[in-house]
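Progress report, Aim 2. The chain analyzed during this reporting quarter is listed below.
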Amino acid sequence: MSALNASTTSEMPRDAAHQPYCILHASLQRDQAAQFAVTVMDVAQGLQLCIELANNSVLTRSMNGDAGSDDAMPILNMDGIERLLRFATSTARLLADHAESRIQWMNEFRTKGDK
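Predicted structure tokens for the chain:
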């Protein structure tokens, strides 16, 4: 069995077949401000999805109250909505905390550079 593993490992490619996708131009991939902008965009899109799912479920539930028995099922139950909104709130808080620490660092860096 070890001979089989040894022969297969020597034939494996050194580079991964999957290369991670990066929206940034190659010249910006090490730029901290650009990386933060990408993080904000990714988090904002995730938050948007969470809020849309919760809103859709609330709206469907509300419309079901006005409709007959052939009601469409909401995507989430009330517990799921609550959990998703708590997740979105926590995520927004973490993003704000991260931004605040970045701002503090930039201000400290700037004041050190002025001296």
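The chain has a mean pLDDT of 83. The CA atoms of residues 24 and 34 lie 8 Å apart. These observations will guide the mutagenesis work planned for the next reporting period.
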